[in-house]
Amino acid sequence: MQELLRKRSDPSLSFEISNRSNVEDDSARRGDFARYSISDATVATLISTGHKHLQPLQQATYEALFEGNDLIAKAETSSGSTLAYTLPVLERLRSSGEKLESRKTQSPLVLVLVPTRDASAQVSRQFEKLKNSKSEFRVLNLSNCSDVSEQIS
Predict the structure, then answer these.
(1) Average per-residue pLDDT in the chain?
(2) How far apart are CA 38 and CA 61, in angstroms?
(3) How many alpha carbons lie under 13 Å from residue 34 in its C-beta half-sphere?
(4) 8 pLDDT above the threshold of 50
């Protein structure tokens, strides 16, 4: 970014900057929530948490995951990868008519395995942010840092 600021007078750079703006606008149009199987309640939740549209990775993976397909994706940090799989999984559950409840006796509906405690915490936070109400479902983050029975209670 510093290089971009230093070379502002370069005409090829100004073309790149204006082109980048067009790419961002196009990405926003393709990421419009109305183009995907996302409920109005979830769209409201997404907007309230600062999401304006789906990011490119989310656009590329949403339908496949919503339809229940397996998928492997490689993405950079901060590309929206956690939302890329949590959102379609939750929307699939919501649209299936499965009763989502926040109670300890509810059987698990989703299991996400990640390699680190930090990733586990990030996934849990993302699921919590996607709740349409505080009592919609329960998120349980189990990690190897303490006794599982203590974490479940």
Answers:
(1) 79
(2) 14
(3) 2
(4) no
Contacts of 128 (CB under 8 A, 6+ apart): 139
CB 139 within 8 A of CB 124: yes
Alpha-carbon span 59 to 111, nearest angstrom: 22
- Closest residue by Cα to residue 122 from 70, 84, 72, 66: 84
Dist CA 31 CA 54 (whole Å): 4
Segments in the chain forming alpha helices (H): 2-6, 11-30, 40-48, 56-66, 81-96, 117-129, 148-152
Can you give 22-53 as a three-state secondary structure string? HHHHHHHHHCCHHHCCCCHHHHHHHHHCCCCC
Q: How far apart are CA 42 and CA 50, in angstroms?
A: 12
Instruction: Give the mean pLDDT of 6-21.
Output: 39
Tokens of 112: 């996400």
| pTM across the whole model | 0.72
